[in-house]
Amino acid sequence: MKKTISVIAISAALCAFQASAQDVADLNDLEMAHVAYTADNIDIRYAHMALALSSNPEIHAFANTMISDHTAVNEAALGLLDKLGATAQDNFFSQALNDGAEQVINNFSNLRGVEFDIAYAANELAYHQTVNSLVEHTMIPNIDNDEVRALFQQGLEIFKVHEGHAEMMVKELTE
Amino acid sequence: MTKTITRRGVLVGAAASAAVSSTSLTSANASRPKTHEVRITQFKFEPDVVVVGVGDIIRWSNFDLAHHTATGNAFGWDTGEIAKGMSKEMVVTGDMETRYFCAFHPHMKGTITIKL
User: Fold this and answer.
1) CA B23 to CA A136: how far, in whole Å?
2) For residue B66, which of A66, A124, A48 has the smallest C-alpha distance?
3) Whole-number mean pLDDT of chain A?
4) What dihedral angle (degrees, nearest 10) is formed by the CA atoms of B59, B64, B70, B71?
5) Start-to-end Cα distance in chain B
6) Does residue A105 sit in helix, strand or coil?
């Protein structure tokens, strides 16, 4: 019962992001870059928690992949912004993502063992589903700069792999 | 005029012959190792099967933004992380694991077929 509540709490936090999808479409390229950078950093934070709190080797492997991949995307984003002579711009959605992440992290900190593993895997699946949908259907179609759009497309390709991996992880943990 | 061949002589001769053959093959391979290119792109090893000889070199080059590895299934060998635009090489040995994957993205799989 407690596991179910934990997953519901995480999903509720993610619903807050979906509610404002329409407003995200109105963000400029530099604000969208900030959203992507923030979303990457949040998943890196979750991964570090997983490495600290889980003893499951599969969870550790997944977390290390999240750190490696999201760091690579962020480095590419910073490289592109530097090339363009631009700086990512903070905005309401980046702040909403961070607020949601704080709730998730607070929830994680109360969990241990299999409870944590299931909550982490479920959150990774829900997080990637939500962010991927937003990136694909709301952000990419509204990005003006070709290079920024291309980077988002490369990022989406990576995050879809994560979504599939998380889906398998959830299945294995809950079977 | 016949030459007497003792059992010991045959065995030593055979061993020497084997050693020469082995050395010759090793030398030949060492002087002309082939390099087999494997591209890592869109989360796939291309080609996913490489046919190689002992002493040949396999070079994995990463064209993805994500870092990858080529790692033997039982972790007997590992290229380490390959960042975008980077390559890692490995010399083929007769006893190396022939099935491998990416340690970061385990659905990515490849096979090495070693010619005898």
Assistant:
1) 58
2) A66
3) 90
4) 170
5) 41
6) helix
Q: Is A72 on the interface with B (CB under 8 A)?
A: yes
Residue A24: count of CB within 10 angstroms of its CB = 21
CA distance A106 to A122: 15
Residue A58, amino acid = E
CB of B85 within 8 Å of a chain A CB? The answer is no
- The model's pLDDT over A43-73, given as tens digits with 9 standing for 90+, comes to 999 999 999 999 999 999 999 999 999 999 9
pTM of the shown model:
0.80
For the segment A110-136, what is each residue's pLDDT rounded down to a tens digit? 999 999 999 999 999 999 999 999 999
Distance of CA A86 to the CA centre of its chain: 23
CB atoms within 10 A of CB A154: 18
Between A and B, how many residue pairs show a Cβ–Cβ distance under 8 A?
38
- CB of B83 within 8 A of CB of B66? no
Inter-chain CB proximity B67 and A69 less than 8 Å: yes
Residue whose C-alpha is closest to residue A172's, from A122, A107, A104: A122
Give the tokens for residue A172. Answer: 């294995």
CB of B67 less than 8 A from some CB of A: yes
Q: Give CA–CA dist A104/A124, Å, rounded.
A: 11
Residue by residue, DSSP assigns B49-83 as: EEEEETT-EEEEEE-SSS-B--EETTSS-B---B-
CA pair distance A157, A164, nearest whole angstrom: 11
Under a CB-based contact definition with an 8 Å cutoff, are residues B33 and B56 in contact? yes
